[in-house]
Amino acid sequence: SHRDFVTVLKRRRKAGGKDIVVHYLVPDDHHDDDDRTVHRRLGLAVSKSVGHAVTRNTVKRRFRVLARAHEDLPAHCDIVLRAKPSAATASFASLDQQIAKAFAPVAHKVAEA
């Protein structure tokens, strides 16, 4: 939901690279009132500053593929990948390295919890 998306962005826990920012919410600071089954959720934030619709959709497709490739995070994390305008011209390999580097602190934080 939009409320969950905004909650992750407002927590100010983030890691990032030159072209992306990873906002995350880990179990120790997630206070959910309902008792539903918890799964890893991924949100994408690709604004119009990244480019036209075709460019934004390309960036979103790349993010989805890369997030699936780095599924070593636990199932109870909420993650929002936010694209910086330079993500439109970044190579796939560069985005792959940045996401791998940004997901490392998230995995470390979850391991501590």
The separation of the N and C termini measures 25 Å
Order of helices and strands: HEEEHEH
Q: What percent of residues are in strands?
A: 15-25%
H/I helix tally: 3
Strand adjacency order, main sheet: 1-2-4-3
* Major sheet description: 4 strands, mixed
Give the key terms.
4 strands, alpha+beta, single chain
Descriptive report:
There is one protein chain. With 113 residues, the protein is α+β, with helices and mostly antiparallel strands. 42% of the residues lie in helices and 18% in strands. The protein has a 4-stranded mixed beta sheet, sandwiched between helices. Strand 1 (14-16) and strand 2 (20-25) form a beta hairpin. The longest helix is centred in the C-terminal third of the chain and has 21 residues, at 92-112. The chain is globular, with a radius of gyration of 14 Å. The mean pLDDT is 81.
Any chance you could write out the topology, listing elements then pairs?
Blueprint lengths: L1 H9 L3 E3 L3 E6 L15 E5 L7 H17 L8 E6 L8 H21 L1
Parallel strand pairs: 3-4
Antiparallel strand pairs: 1-2, 2-4
Helix pairs in contact: 2-3
Short description:
The protein is an alpha+beta fold.
